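Aim 2 progress update. The chain analyzed this quarter is reproduced below.
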Amino acid sequence: MRWLLPVFHTVTLVFVRVRRSVPGQGMFYAVRRGRKTGVFLSWSECRAQVNRFPAARFKKFATEEEAWAFVRNSSSPDGSKGQENADVQESQVKTSKRPRELLDDGEEPPEPGGKHVKQNTEQDTPVSRDTFAYMGESVVVYTDGCCSSNGRTRARAGIGVYWGPGHPLNVGVRLPGRQTNQRAEIHAACKAITQAKAQNISKLVLYTDSMFTINGITNWVQGWKKNGWRTSTGKEVINKEDFMELDELTQGMDIQWMHIPGHSGFVGNEEADRLAREGAKQSAD
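Predicted structure tokens:
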């Protein structure tokens, strides 16, 4: 009688830690060849870049790191290939909170609590272009602002600008002047643009989780100017000086304003938030 003996194989398990997309928050869509290249947060955004574009190259990934690796035409961190040219519709990435900023065209609504909030020395010397992340010809940057005890006398606000892992231009500083969350969001964008100009960068893709900032600079500011910096209801724009500064900085710049869901696990936004929170801890000038 022949006995069948079980055969055991030694299996070596290798664990690779990568940042995965948050369940229910969508995937990362990487476009290497299309109308615009880069990483997008929804299929509809990706499709707009590749639909009917000759020889388009794009993939869907579970992690931001893998997506950017594909855009740069390098190997993915864990060797996965993603779902190339995935013709599968995905719903728009949903934010974890309804933007309060949409209540009016610039009237600052009550801000109870504000956000739950590496300081690097800013360099004036040129930084190598290879250290930046690109979407097409535009440099990618993430900005965020925060304010603890928002709307109270002991409020502390900070701004954060994130260019990439260990980047010398990453900065987190205390917001000067009036301490509010919305001012912090605006001045975080101002800081990023100022830094870009110092590096002779004229094309930016600026990610922010503040729809107030995006709507203000892309939609409302022209109406405010025509109305003598007053809202459609005749009230003076609360953040007048802040938006005037931002508007002046954007002159001569090619900026794509991109909204990103806050506190949803996206690396760039999380790092900008971390820098902003560290900036808020600093003493006021």
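Helices lie at 43-50, 64-71, 181-198, 211-226, 240-250, 267-280. The chain has six helices and ten strands. These observations will guide the mutagenesis experiments scheduled for the next reporting period.
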